Amino acid sequence: MRSLRSRASTSGSQRWPELAQILERIDGGRPLPQPGTPEAALRALELERYAVVMDQHIKDPARAVKAWHRVLELTPRNRNALDSLAVLYRNHGKWRELADILGGRQIPIVQVDDSERTARDRDGTR
Fold first, then answer.
1. Which residues contact 95 (CB under 8 A, 6 or more apart)?
2. Which of 9, 55, 74, 122 is deepest in the core (most CB within 10 A)?
3. Confidence (pLDDT) at 115
């Protein structure tokens, strides 16, 4: 598969559809394995490759979105999938879907305990 991918990138756009077909056959719409298993990690990687081909080389956003969502079913916090979906939704004006993707991200919150806050307030630092 690696040689096909390298040939696809060096021979122009002629080979990307062939790679997409091979990746589609590998997935074949089979039921997804249980998340958190080694099989799920491998399948997520295959689906991620397919999504990148659909998005960046074939330029088929509908198929890319479906593939990225399948990646998220296996690895819900997959940063590549979340970032790619955000870009796809933003570029195609899918604001509700974009809000869902962005709303699902967890931003770490740093908590400051009261003793630190009191010390900063007393010192005049913020």
1. 89
2. 74
3. 54
Query: What is the rounded distance in angstroms from the CA atom of residue 3 to the CA atom of residue 1?
Result: 5
Residue labelled with tokens 């900063």? 120
pTM: 0.67
Tell me the C-alpha to C-alpha distance, in Å, between residue 23 and each of 36, 91, 92.
Answer: 22, 25, 25
Q: Which residues of 9-37 are buried (b: 16+ CB within 10 A; e: fewer)?
A: eeeeeebbeebbeebeeeeeeeebeeeee
- Give the class (CATH, top level) of 2-123: mainly alpha
Q: Say if residue 110's pLDDT is above 50.
A: no
Domain ranges of the chain: 2-123
What CA–CA distance (Å, rounded) separates 32 from 29? 8
